[in-house]
Design goal:
alpha+beta, single chain, disordered N terminus, 29 helices, Rossmann fold, eleven-stranded mixed sheet, Calcium-transporting ATPase, transmembrane domain, disordered C terminus, eight-stranded mixed sheet
Length: 925
């Protein structure tokens, strides 16, 4: 399967079937000592031979493919047909003009989409995983691509395998190999070799790249990386699959199809009206083609791509990495966030602050990773070496542990592992107990990995007589304990004593402390379960302070109509105290304690109506199992909620997949959780979720705003030309002028709207209905009303110009300029209802001002650059013409601002927020 290399980089051994070789044989072939691992020099030499641990990139869209995709849409097809029709009727100028529109839009789309695609590829680079390896005798995290054959990998539940690994040690190890074998049931793993002819699904001594550890722990040696892995071999055979269309893309496609039908109907209607009125056939064909082009929103796919890409980059800058494109739009409609407590609402910097033994309460000083701290009982110093129960409790906490502490050269302490286990190691170090020294004295025989159902973990130690070190939830340990250690020896744990210990655990939890119990037991052999006849030693109280900015983030959720529910495996009293400290609940002294202990619940799929309502209204669900989290999400979804769920462990992965938006912790989360999630928090901050929700709303709002702006501008052109045609009046704008305006007013301001930051009012109203279309009935009404206002202004400009005695071309020029400027000023009517009219999300958007400057420059060029003016049949309007054009162009803006003010007051009286798109209420869909 692989060949190792020596330190000179030469291949030194072949290991064709590592699953059939013994662990010692594999280590010898790969020339590595498991307790030490490879040196950095050996790693560099082997990487030079084997290359980085990466699969060949598949699916990378080439620039040519991106360019070709710009022409693969119904909207562009309609434009091509219009161009062909113009050439067929001998109108080469119009045909060339339409072709120019197609080429320019394709160029803009190519540049923006290529940038977006490359941005997405860069985002995927940010999401690459890491592995825990032992190198030069120390455990450390390294990027997965740096693994080489011979690396010693340390494995825990939740790890995603990033190379093919031959196990050398395994404790209750199971792996999900469904990605390779299709078998959904986790597979038990062991270090013993299997038969050479064993199929992939039966190679119990191997773990494969792309699979995940679901339970237990272990160590292994890397035997294959990159394309040499089983996953690499399969990926080399798999053909590329086209990505699935996202819901937003489907909505845009539906909108495009409707617009095409509308385009054909409008063009046919205007042509028929003109012909019945006696106009020339050729002129009406030109007008129909121009109107068809005017109706088609050529920039729609471009702006959607740009809006999504820029929105995702904004999320990355706020430490939210999106793994799926469709998750961006779903974020905007999130109505419930189910959040864990530890690390999301709290700092996840656990510190053991108290140890409770049968002899009393002992406070421990120091915080974080500081290994200096004193021990005090009732204000008097305590020496752990002279307190056998305290010393034994600290010793058990250090032994029953997977974390590691390393003192760096500069005096700092580096920690690897779960924060709770790190805190236990730090507490032991304060008493002079170092885990490596303890393990050397009492070698570890076996680790029984943490069982989330039992809420227990154990390690077996000894050199002759075997002792079990056990830790877990207080109620779980107390349930299995028969004795308690006291100053006078081990005494029986009767019901009264058990109740007293449970009361102490409740008291600690009520102060917001996490509580763990530690126990021990002598075993006659390693085959006997350590989870019975335990001797209780102590309770550890660990404190994790609330995060500084979480209170304001929770307040922002309330303002946005997003409900936050704490779902935790921790004690209910602890959860209630933390919830009160961060403002999730009112935990004042007169307030009743309100949480649901999930252990008291029946099957969540069989709840009565009253039980379901109580659960849906509960602010905290404590002691929740992984299965209950999954059922809770389903319960919320059945009641119409769009659910976001945070998680960090392997057992959270099913719930993260089930949720509408799975949110994994980037710092402390397992790789399985990150793979299952739609979004990864790179800073583990709850406030980042709120920022991402706001950005999700802004993205959808930008697309809606762009559609409203573009279609109302197009409607103004259709209504103006259509009205003039019906009444047999002069045309206010010529076909080529319509095509020119499409380039001026369609693309640049629309792009500027698509990349806006969004209104602050976004987070002051309830989430939108996820089934709501991009444009609702009220939006279509607004399109007609706003387009009608602009069309009336243009017709008024034409009438004034004719009345003042201007010749035909000059009067048409005035109408053209009035229409162009009215459409430009129209962008300021796209603000939110609640936004001030002077300083709002439009006026503060620098892209809008840049777009307006470009468009005004192009308009001036159309008037004063003679070749362009002659092509467009435009003449100098003079001071009088400019005055008429400017004066009439601001009338629709004034009407729009008055309408916004009136609707804003109505919305405030109703007590309901308005939708983003231009501030027009979505009301009915």
């Amino acid at each position: 399967m692989t060949r190792a290399t020596d330190h000179e980089g030469e291949r030194v051994a072949s290991l064709p079937r590592p699953w059939a070789s013994g662990a010692e044989e594999a280590l010898e072939a790969l020339r590595v000592e498991p307790k030490r691992g490879l040196s950095e020099e050996e790693v560099r030499a082997r990487r030079a031979v084997h290359g980085p641990n990466l699969l060949r990139e598949a699916g990378r869209r080439s620039s040519w493919r991106i360019l070709a995709d710009q022409f693969a849409s119904l909207l562009v097809g309609l434009l091509v047909a219009a161009s062909g029709l113009a050439f067929a009727f001998g109108e080469a100028v119009e045909g060339l003009a339409i072709a120019t529109v197609i080429v320019l839009n394709a160029a803009i789309g190519f540049v923006t989409e290529r940038r977006a695609v490359r941005s997405m590829e860069a985002l995927r680079e940010l999401g690459r995983v890491s592995a825990t390896v032992r190198r030069a005798g120390r455990a450390r995290h390294v990027p997965a691509e740096e693994l080489v054959p011979g690396d010693i990998v340390l494995l825990e539940a939740g790890d995603v395998l990033t190379a093919d690994v031959r196990l050398i040690d395994a404790s209750k190890l199971q792996a999900d190999e469904s990605t390779l074998t299709g078998e959904s049931v986790p597979v038990a793993k062991r270090a013993d070799p299997v038969a050479e002819e064993a199929p992939l699904a039966e190679r119990a001594s191997m773990l494969f790249k792309g699979t995940a550890v679901t339970r237990g722990s272990g160590e292994g040696v890397v035997v294959a990386t990159g394309m040499a892995t089983e996953l690499g071999r399969i990926s080399a055979l798999v053909e590329e699959v086209e990505p699935e269309t996202t819901p937003l893309e489907k909505r845009l496609d539906v909108l495009g199809r409707r617009l095409i039908a509308l385009t054909l109907a409008v063009a046919a209607g205007v042509a028929a009206a003109g012909l019945l009125g006696g106009r020339e056939l050729l002129l009406m064909i030109e007008i129909s083609i121009a109107l068809a082009v005017a109706t088609v929103p050529e920039g729609l796919p471009i702006v959607a791509t740009v809006a999504l890409a820029r929105g995702m980059w904004r999320m990355v800058r706020r430490n939210a990495l999106m793994e799926r494109l469709d998750a961006v739009e779903t974020l905007g409609s999130t109505s419930v966030i189910l959040t864990d407590k530890t690390g999301t609402l709290t700092e996840n910097r656990m510190t053991v602050v108290e140890v409770r033994t049968a002899d009393g309460r002992i406070a421990i000083g120091g915080s974080g990773l500081a290994i200096a701290g004193d021990f005090q009982r009732d204000g008097s110093p305590v020496d752990p070496a002279e307190d056998p129960i305290l010393g034994e409790a600290l010793r058990v906490g250090a032994l029953c542990n997977n974390a590691a502490l390393h003192e760096l050269a500069d005096g700092r302490v580096e920690a690897v592992g779960d924060p709770t286990e790190v805190a236990l190691l730090v507490a032991a170090r304060k008493a002079g107990l170092d885990r490596p020294a303890l393990v050397e004295k009492s070698p570890e025989l076996e680790e029984i990995a943490f069982d989330p159902d039992l809420k227990l973990m154990a390690t077996l130690h000894g050199d002759g007589e075997i002792a079990a070190a056990v830790k877990g939830a207080p109620e779980a340990v107390l349930e299995r304990a028969t004795h308690v250690r006291t100053g006078g020896g081990d005494s029986e744990l009767d019901p009264e004593t058990r109740a007293r210990w449970l009361a102490w655990a409740e008291e600690m939890a009520s102060r917001g402390e996490r509580v763990l119990a530690v126990a021990t037991r002598r075993l006659p052999s390693a085959d006997v379960s350590p989870y019975s006849d335990l001797v209780l030693l102590a309770l550890f109280a660990l404190l994790d302070p609330p995060r500084e900015r979480v209170r304001e983030a929770l307040a922002a959720c309330r303002d946005a109509g997003v409900r936050v529910v704490m779902v935790t495996g921790d004690h209910g009293a602890t959860a209630w105290t933390v919830a009160g400290a961060v403002g999730l609940v009112d935990a004042g002294p007169d307030q009743p304690v309100r949480f649901i202990d999930a252990r008291s619940l029946p099957d969540l799929t069989q709840l009565s109506h009253e039980q379901a309502q109580a659960l849906l209204e509960a602010p905290i669900v404590a002691r929740a199992s992984p299965r209950q989290k999954l059922d809770l999400i389903a319960l919320y979804q059945r009641h119409g909620a769009v659910v976001a769920m945070t998680g960090d462990g392997v057992n959270d992965a099913p719930a993260l997949k089930k949720a509408d938006i799975g949110i994994a912790m980037g710092r402390r989360g397992t790789q399985v959780a990150r793979e299952a999630a739609a979004m990864v928090l790179q800073d583990d901050e709850f406030g980042t979720i709120v920022s991402a929700v706001a950005q999700g709303r802004a993205i959808f709002g930008n697309i809606r705003r762009f559609c409203l702006y573009l279609l109302s501008c197009n409607a103004s052109e259709i209504l103006a030309v259509g009205a003039a045609t019906v009444v047999q009046g002069p045309l206010p704008i010529l076909p080529l002028q319509i095509l020119f305006l499409n380039l001026v007013t369609d693309v640049f301001p629309a792009l500027a709207l698509g990349v806006g930051e969004g209104s602050p009012a976004l987070m002051r109203r309830p989430p939108r209905d996820p089934k709501e279309p991009i444009l609702t009935r009220d939006h279509w009404h607004a399109i007609l009303a706003l387009g009608g206002a602009i069309a009336l202004a243009v017709l008024a400009a034409l009438a004034l110009a004719v009345a003042s005695g201007m010749e035909r071309e000059r009067a048409t020029t005035v109408a053209f300029l009035s229409l162009a400027m009215a459409q430009l000023w129209h962008v300021f009517s796209m603000r939110h209802l609640e936004s001030p009219w002077l300083r709002n999300e439009i006026t503060t958007n620098p892209w809008v001002w840049g777009a307006l400057a470009v468009c005004v420059g192009l308009l001036l060029a159309a008037v004063y650059v003679r070749p362009l003016a002659e092509l467009l049949s435009i003449s100098d309007p003079g001071a009088e013409g400019w005055t008429i054009a400017l004066g009439t162009s601001v009338v629709p803006l004034a009407i729009g601002q008055v309408a916004l003010a009136v609707q804003g007051r109505r919305a405030l009286r109703r007590g309901a927020g308005a939708t983003v798109a231009g501030g027009h209420s979505a009301g009915r869909s």
